Every structure is written in C-alpha cells, then in structure tokens.
UniProtKB/TrEMBL annotation:
Keyword Glycoprotein: no
Residue spans crossing the bilayer: 21-39, 45-64, 98-118, 124-147
Protein name per its UniProtKB record: DUF4395 domain-containing protein
Domain spans labelled DUF4395: 14-149
The organism of origin for this protein: Cryobacterium arcticum
C-alpha cells in the first residue's frame, strides 16, 4: 500500500507509517470477521471478508490509490513529523497480494460451504496485519525480500 509518495532516483518511495496505519485498519476488520463467524453470523463474516478481499486486491494492483493509504495521506500524515526515511513500495504491495491470496481462499471456500474457512483465513491474515500494526513486522514484506534474495522475484521498480 503506498502513501505520500516522493521519487528518489526514479523510484517511488513511501512513508513507512502508511502501511502500518493500513495494517491497523485491516486488523480491526479481520477481527470483526472472526467475531462475526464465532457468534454465528457467517453471512456477515463472509461479506466483510469479501470486502476486505477487495481492499487487498486494490492494494495489490492499484498501489498509490489504496483507500487506507489515501486516508493516511489526508488525515494522519499532516499531523505527523516527516518520516526518518522513506521505503520501497514493492514489499508492502507484495504483502497486499499475499493478503489477497489468503482472503480469496477464505471467501471461495466460504462460498463453497466450508464455513470454517472464513474465520481461519481471517485469523491468518489478522496475525500478519497485527504484527505489522503493533510491531512494524510485515510478514508479506519479509516473504518478498526472501523471494528477491532467492532470485525468484526481481527487485524491479514498483509502478506508482
């Protein structure tokens, strides 16, 4: 998820606090999905997970126009001091793709009648979002860096 971009050496850079802000919103939504599933509101849980899946897709494919990034840019960033450093948007964008994959599996299996898939997928995605929001540890970003080091992915400039 990209937020407040500037360009350094032809590559877009983002405020690293933006993805953490988005992870906080995501964690709250996923916690609501888990709660709804546990209290028997499986239709509501599936609907909310489907909406979060759309947000993951938006973050994975639209980059700088991510809704949580726009909220951060307009409402939060103006109240903060400038970041100490900017970061490459590719790892957080990849992390949104990982979240998308997990959420799609939950939604598809939920629609196929596997009710337990919805809270399980939401719980898996929640763990990742919570780690990012609370501890600034992005599992999807770490996976991205591992795949780059293994030369499975190339470190190409991310599109803005």
């Amino acid at each position: 998820m990209t937020t407040s971009m500037t360009t350094t050496a032809g590559r877009p850079r983002i405020d690293p606090r933006g993805p953490r802000f988005g992870a906080l919103i995501t964690a709250v939504i996923l916690l609501a999905v888990i709660f709804l599933a546990l209290v028997g509101a499986s239709g509501g849980a599936l609907t909310l997970l489907a909406l979060q899946t759309a947000v993951f897709a938006w973050g994975a494919f639209a980059g700088g126009r991510h809704p949580y990034g726009l909220l951060f840019k307009k409402l939060v960033r103006p109240r903060l001091s400038p970041p100490e450093a900017l970061e490459d948007p590719a790892p957080p964008t990849f992390a949104q793709g990982v979240g998308l994959l997990v959420a799609v599996i939950g939604v598809v299996l939920g629609l196929a009648g596997v009710a337990a898939a919805v809270p399980i997928a939401a719980a898996a995605a929640f763990v990742a979002a919570f780690l990012n929001a609370a501890f600034d540890y992005c599992l999807g970003c770490q996976l991205y860096l591992l795949l780059v080091r293994a030369r499975i992915l190339s470190r190409a400039p991310a599109a803005s």
